[in-house]
UniProtKB/TrEMBL annotation:
This is Carbohydrate ABC transporter membrane protein 2 (CUT1 family). Belongs to the binding-protein-dependent transport system permease family. It is a multi-pass membrane protein. Residues 74-271 form the ABC transmembrane type-1 domain. Gene3D superfamilies: MetI-like. The chain crosses the membrane at residues 12-34, 78-100, 112-131, 151-171, 192-217, 250-271.
Length: 286
């Protein structure tokens, strides 16, 4: 024991608190998943029991796939979220590089505007955004591409301030000598950005992409205004309709919630190291 690492009482208390907090966070998700394999009556009478034996059923998932357009909703969600993440990392990356490496008159005001952009919630801008998109005939149209684009554009704008703030901190920590050497070798600013900055800032770009993807995937408010037709609805919009129409069918609701959150859990489990590394890498200037 003398050679082992000593654990203080404070560390034990911290681990206990964190363990309890993790349990209270994970258990509701576990509860929803196990109840998705039960009939409505079993959920009401044995909501905390494991779905074993005669209690286990896949009827809720069969009903969800038969009565709901799950696959088209997943497709729409993936198109929207992937497009938002890709556009954000490209635009925010170039903006961060310009704000950090170039001196110009409006640099400080632009930095202030970027930070100020994080203070305005989407609720305060939805009316002018809706009017602009409606005047461009992108809302309530039969075109799937235009409907999805009407959601993508506001979500890109909503993620830009956060993405620029995160990427600016990381780009500022990169050694400028590498970029100067590339410039002396004949590289132009775009080549320096894509060949030097992007490879070195991969953790931070991954963080921005993941958060943009998750925020877009879970964004119900924008979808409620802009995705009106059933065939254009994304997965969270579909779940909201299900809650309104099937408010007492708890088994179907649990199955639908499980179908919504499982992709998010998979993304987070496999990419959590990039989230943690990207958020902390730019905190200390190298």
């Amino acid at each position: 024991m003398s050679r082992g690492k000593k654990i203080s009482l404070g560390s034990v208390v911290i681990y206990i608190v964190l363990g309890f907090w993790a349990l209270t966070t994970i258990y509701p998700i576990f509860w929803v998943i196990i109840n998705s394999f039960k009939a409505k009556g079993e959920i009401l009478s044995n909501s905390f029991a494991l779905p074993t034996g005669a209690m286990f059923t896949l009827a809720n998932y069969r009903t969800a796939f038969e009565r709901l357009s799950i696959f088209s909703a997943y497709r729409n969600s993936m198109i929207i979220s992937t497009s938002v993440a890709a556009i954000v990392i490209v635009l925010a990356g170039m903006a961060s590089f310009g704000l950090v490496r170039y001196e110009f008159k409006l640099r400080k005001p632009l930095n202030s505007l970027v930070v100020a952009g994080m203070m305005f919630p989407v609720f305060s801008t939805i009316i002018p955004v809706y009017r602009m998109l409606s005047s461009a005939h992108m809302v309530n149209t039969e075109s799937l591409a235009l409907s999805l684009t009407s959601v993508i554009l506001p979500q890109v704008a909503g993620n830009m301030s956060f993405a620029i703030v995160v990427l600016t901190g990381y780009v500022r920590s990169l050694p400028i000598e590498l970029e100067e050497s590339a410039y002396l070798e004949g590289c132009n600013p775009f080549q320096i950005f894509y060949k030097i900055v992007v490879p070195l800032a991969k953790p931070s770009f991954a963080t921005v992409a993941i958060f943009s993807f998750l925020w877009s995937y879970n964004d119900l408010f924008t979808q409620m205004f802009l995705l009106r037709l059933p065939q254009h609805r994304a997965i969270t919009r579909l779940l909201n309709e299900l809650t309104s129409n099937e408010g007492t069918n708890f088994g179907l609701m649990a199955a639908s919630v499980a179908l919504v959150i499982i992709p998010i859990l998979i993304v987070y489990i496999f990419l959590q190291k990039y989230i943690i590394k990207g958020m902390t890498a730019g905190a200390v200037k190298g």
